[in-house]
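Q: For a teaching handout, I want to show students what a protein-ligand complex looks like in token form. Below are the inputs, and the small molecule is magnesium ion. Please produce the holo structure.
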Amino acid sequence: MEPSKIESSSGPAGVVSPVHIEVEGLRFNRGERPIFRDVSCGFLRDRINVILGGSGSGKTTLLRMLGCLLRPDSGAIRVDDDLDLTRLGSSEIKAYRRHVGMMFQGGALLDSMSVFDNAALPLREHSPLDEAEIAREIRHVFDSVGLDGVDDLLPAELSGGMKKRAALARALVTAPDILLCDEPFSGLDPATVRLVESLLVDVNERLGVTMVIASHHVASTFRMAGRIVLLVEGEALSGAPDAFRDHADPRVEEFFAGDLV
Amino acid sequence: MTGGGVTRLGRGATRMVFDLGGLTRFGAQVADSLRRRPLRLRRLADEMFTIGVLSLSIVLLSGLLVGLVLGLQGHTTLVRFGAEDTLGAVVGLVLIRELGPVLTALLVTGRAGSAVAAEIGAMVVTEQLDGLRMMSVDPIDFVVKPKALAMVLSMPLLSALFIVMGVFGGWLVGVVFVGGDPGLYLSSLESAVRFREDIGGSLLKAFVFGVLVALISTWRGFTCRPNAAGVSAATTATVVMSSVATLIFDYFITALWRF
Ligand SMILES: Nc1ncnc2c1ncn2[C@@H]1O[C@H](COP(=O)(O)OP(=O)(O)OP(=O)(O)O)[C@@H](O)[C@H]1O
Ligand SMILES: [Mg+2]
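A: Here is the structure, written as tokens, with magnesium ion included.
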């Protein structure tokens, strides 16, 4: 471990913690099968953090734990140094989620409602805004993700890239502090990957939101990530992208298998 | 192989107890959501429309056919005792007390209950329910409540329509086909039906069956495993469980309501 800057667990914290979400010693089994043996890593505040890993390595699982959709068997997930997600009751979870947006792999848009109604849903449920203000808000968010003229369409009538953008828009309308994205690039052609990628970077720069993105898209990860968390064999290796370029760990080498230039 | 059989029986019984526990807890959550605002009347109206549209034609057609058969069977039997004047009462009472609510529940289960389970199951598979949770929206309140309530409210209405169509079918046979007295058919029906025992019991049954089908179908969808096989299992289980539950409850309501 010595020559590389990749950490197997979190390093010593500075005076002002740049770490927004701290994951410590997560252990999780599905039946008899261990998914996480000992996962420790940190996600940087206001930066783009990418979770990499092979299929079935637990990227979605970790993301769901960050959204309190799943509880680990043991370990802690601390947000802002105090809130431990693994110990929240249901009303605390609700309160926490008000500050979190999640973009699911398939979009998870409600297929019985129009794209506009989908994006408006969190505002209609929780904000005191009236319909005109909501419409203005949605216009604004749709503009920023480049959605135009799809308000009245049903999610089933959208293309894959548009669905991702609509899902991103819905996650952003409540101006979350934390944005969780599951595979924002899966099933997209290279041009659309670039487009969604620049959208995410743009949103991150403008709104300064802490992003955690599960992905297996190596190239885009090295372009945008401030921190990479690589899941291998139930453990996490994390560090800055550069630390992964001059890796020393054979597990890192195996995952990238020549993808790194 | 008795050992294996006993083990399987034991496992089945354990699962049933677990299932009942889960269903009860789910029912309590749904009941709790009924007390919460907003009532989501728009979504309720949409769901009633969907369930109504899905079930209406099959309920009307089945009601008519059952009425025709009851008319024929009733007539041939009653003629033997020289009691064909009471055909209206026989057809009407059988429909109101038993066949209306029970057959409607079975039809609605097959048509709308399975659809509800499949729809909610598909929402589980595509993470739509998790999406709602992440927006701090309770899926039971937002998705299950309107669907379940629509099912409960639709069932007595559909059952009443079934009965009306059935009485009409019996009238077609008894009056039009075999040329009975049109006045007698209706007056024998009128004088035989008692309000509390017959109409009240009929509505009670339809209401209880509505609650059963609503809870079972939404619960099965809600707890569906997140893949295609899970959705198909949830749909099948909904039909089987709802049908059996309907017939079991039918017996007990009949016994306790003292028809
Ligand atoms: N609902 C479930 N029930 C049982 N096992 C599950 C379930 N969901 C995931 N798993 C298992 O957990 C492991 C991690 O799954 P996860 O979805 O987190 O992987 P992933 O890294 O997101 O993979 P992918 O890149 O394919 O999306 C997998 O081995 C998977 O088989
Ligand atoms: Mg995944």
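A: Two things your students might notice: Strands of chain A lie at 19-30, 33-44, 48-53, 74-79, 83-84, 100-103, 178-182, 210-214, 227-232, 235-239. The radius of gyration of chain A is 18 Å.
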